[in-house]
Specification:
With about 140 residues, the protein is an all-alpha fold. The chain has six helices and no strands.
Length: about 140
């Protein structure tokens, strides 16, 4: 031990070196428990951010609801109208009915991105980051069908 203390300077230096190496090795290992803890902390922070944002923008609730109703109404009318025209086209053999249904369906597809945002905001706010990407792809027309 005296040889080691002479090499490293003292027993305290040896202890500090061993302690430093131990802490360094421990920091290299990221256990499943540590990963789960970090993920839980991130989810909690994200939820708190969304709740805080909703509290700070509470005066805009009426506008949000109006926008949600308009988007939902447009989407629902286009969906139902296209479906009705599809059913009518079975009984009435007129190609214009099929063309009308397809045109309405294409218009409905352009509103689907907005509908995804509305549904995500009201029913999946903590996971909105996952919804926004897909909705924006739908808006830009880049989404694959």
């Amino acid at each position: 031990m005296s040889l080691l203390s002479r090499i490293f300077g003292s027993e305290k230096a040896l202890g500090a070196t061993i302690s430093g190496v131990t802490k360094g090795l421990d920091a290299l290992v990221y256990t499943d428990e540590e990963k789960a803890q970090a993920a839980a902390e991130e989810r909690t922070a994200a939820r708190q951010m969304v709740v805080g944002w909703m509290e700070r923008t509470q005066g805009q609730n009426l506008a949000r609801r109006l926008i949600a109703l308009v988007v939902t109404g447009i989407w629902a009318v286009q969906y139902v109208l296209a479906m009705l025209l599809d059913v009518v086209s079975v009984w009435v053999f007129d190609p214009r009915i099929n063309q009308s249904a397809e045109s309405i369906r294409q218009g409905g597809d352009s509103v689907t991105g907005a509908m995804m945002l509305v549904l995500g905001f009201y029913f999946a706010a903590p996971h909105l980051d996952k919804v926004v990407g897909g909705a924006m792809e739908r808006f830009s027309g880049k989404a694959t069908k």
